[in-house]
Specification:
Keywords: Oxidoreductase, Peroxidase. This is Glutathione peroxidase. Belongs to the glutathione peroxidase family. The chain has 152 residues and is an alpha/beta fold. It has a single domain, classed as Glutaredoxin (3-Layer(aba) Sandwich). Helices cover 35% and strands 16% of the residues. It has a five-stranded mixed β-sheet with strand order 3-2-1-4-5. β4 and β5 form a beta hairpin. The longest helix is centred in the N-terminal third of the chain and has 15 residues. It is globular and about 40 Å long.
């Protein structure tokens, strides 16, 4: 479903301080570029400190992908391609995330929610953006990938 598209692959969380700005900006970017062959692949993850603490008070990432999708649709009016909950670090990390971590970085560990990878139409990782890097700050990279790759 992503062949030939420029894609942001991102680990997401529903209850994180970075959730509002990331979902809001990702929604805007998706609306702007979707018709040009752009997509967002979102992978829920609650592998990080705050989510582990939230387990104690029962505020963790919802277990069911349908509940997560419903949250994103209701709160942000966005419908990203949402995948099953994954681990992004450690021995049980999803194979896609193991591969992503090995690309474009001096440190392969995912530091927090909303680490974003920009993948070309050819399936090459062309950018990695940390959790505090807002999606709109790298729209030039997205545009460049869309423009260059459309010449294939």
């Amino acid at each position: 479903q992503f062949r030939g598209k420029v894609v942001i692959i991102v680990n997401v969380a529903s209850k994180c301080g970075l959730t509002p700005v990331n979902y809001t900006q990702l929604k805007e970017i998706l609306a702007e570029y979707k018709d040009r062959g752009f997509a967002i692949a979102a992978f829920p993850c609650n592998q990080f400190a705050d989510q582990k603490l939230m387990l104690i008070v029962h505020l963790e990432e919802p277990d069911c992908e349908a509940d997560i999708q419903s949250f994103v649709q209701k709160k942000y009016a966005m419908e990203p391609d949402l995948f099953a909950k994954v681990e992004v670090n450690g021995d049980r990390a999803d194979p896609l995330w193991k591969w992503l971590r090995s690309q474009k970085s001096k440190s392969d560990e995912i530091k927090w929610n909303f680490t974003k990878f920009l993948v070309s139409r050819r399936g090459e990782v062309i950018g990695r953006y940390g959790p505090t890097i807002e999606p709109k700050s790298f729209t030039k990279d997205i545009e460049q990938a869309l423009n260059e790759q459309s010449k294939i």
